[in-house]
Amino acid sequence: MLKGVGVGLIALSVLIGLILFSNGTLQISAEEKQKQPTSPNQVKDQAVSSSKKSSPTQITNADKTIVLTQLNDKVWAHTSYNDYNGTTVDHNGLVVSTSKGVVLVDTAWDTLENHAKTEELLEMIEKHLKKKVVMALVTHAHDDSIGGIQALLDQGIDVRSTFLTAKLAKERGYPSPNPTLDAKPVMKVGDTVIEAFYPGEGHSQDNITVWLPQHQILFGGCFIKALGAKDLGNLSDANVEQWDDSVQKVIDKYPNVKTVIAGHGQWGDKSLLYHTIDLIKQHTSQENSNHE
Description:
alpha/beta; eight-stranded mixed β-sheet; five-stranded mixed β-sheet; 13 strands; 24% strand
């Protein structure tokens, strides 16, 4: 008799447990179900949210003539726009955040008469990065790289270049940068190492590159062409015959480069270096065929 009662109690306990387990499972399933998108719009919203997380952070000024694009936690590209032969063209530079302040590579695309975009660029950097520009490097003496130099000097910023760029700047009416990069191409600003390199003539006789070894980022400036470029662009001061040899020196010097920033157009990887050489060969071939 007692044995039968015991078996019955055990069976009852098992039944109650199954009911509780079933209810718990149903409750968990309902909660998980609530987390799933229930409409195409929800699916779209989640996809957009995910896309936003993976997109680079961008900051623009009111009239969208200056854009800051975050490359990593310390380095931004600055892009400004100007009219060139009736077409709106972009120009890229770098903003490097260090423990001692910001290093700017190239000014915004200003002119000798008007350096308003560089003034606004400095304001944007201080507002959003909470740091001031303490040093600037000019990669060559064309408007798109040096046009805003007066705005930098007005704020007491140390503007550096090679001796040749300083000389050409003065000849073109610009204030002279501090010509220190020939003797001291490698600089340590706070916790950040920055290296200037003169590979030889190319886009201009004075063009240099800027290397950030800790980030494996190479700023090629107008010396390097973006993958979207179909030709070599402005050749008014170019040495096309020497250009490909100069690019090869950069390839040999920086085998570990991960990101390459061209002066105009979209940045990418080291394929930009080889694309530039291809464009030089294409230009040379066309020139040779025209003279046959």
